[in-house]
Write a structure and sequence with these properties.
Elements (H helix, E strand, L loop, with lengths): L6 H16 L5 H13 L3 H8 L12 E6 L2 E4 L7 E6 L2 E5 L8 E9 L2 E5 L5 E4 L2 E3 L2 E4 L10 E5 L1 E3 L2 E5 L7
Parallel strand pairs: 1-3, 2-4, 3-5, 4-6, 5-10, 5-11, 6-12, 7-10, 8-11, 9-12
Helix pairs in contact: 1-2
């Protein structure tokens, strides 16, 4: 009997692929091909061949939490750790401009009537897997042809916004 995959299992599989491309074990083309298959997979049997030669994703430290409720918080998180950012009637500003090629970060960005701004390097590959309900998600600039650090953003924006800028933060 084939066992169906959960969204979390697919997400963990994409983390393995992200780590493999960041380490130089697979190319961006191979990453794109495998990612498409992973996201379309319905069972574990379909998922396994895409990961068999890469090993498991390693989660070394817990998430960094940045929560702004009716306030504004500015942070420069560690690139190697997952970040959970939540803005409720407030603002969270994440400065990732110091990230270097090969580094990667996962951001879970949730906003309710709030704003989340993420500043990334010019050459960053930004992957937005999140959703918006009566809100807006915008990534300025394209990731096409970029080979810098990988920033993967998920989460839900409700009556708020998430914006990703490819520039140094000028004013906060």
């Amino acid at each position: 009997m084939a066992i169906r995959l959960s969204d979390e299992e697919r997400w963990e599989a994409t983390r393995v692929l992200d780590a493999a491309v960041a380490d130089g074990r697979i190319t961006w083309e191979e990453h794109a091909e495998r990612s498409a298959i992973v996201l379309a997979a319905r069972t574990r049997g379909q998922l396994w061949p895409q990961l068999a030669d890469l090993g498991p994703a390693v989660r070394s430290e817990p998430s960094q939490r940045v929560v702004a409720t009716v306030s504004k918080i500015i942070r420069t998180p560690e690139a190697s750790r997952e970040v959970y950012a939540r803005a409720t009637f407030g603002a969270v500003i994440l400065d990732l401009t110091g990230m270097r090629r090969g580094e990667q970060i996962k951001i879970v960005a949730d906003s309710f009537c709030g704003k989340i701004a993420v500043y990334v390097p010019q050459d960053a590959v930004v992957i937005d897997d999140g959703t918006a309900v009566l809100g807006k998600r915008k990534i300025f600039g394209s990731s096409q042809g970029m080979s810098g650090p990988v920033v993967r953003i998920s989460g839900r924006v409700t009556m708020g916004n998430l914006k990703v800028f490819r520039d140094e933060p000028h004013h906060w």
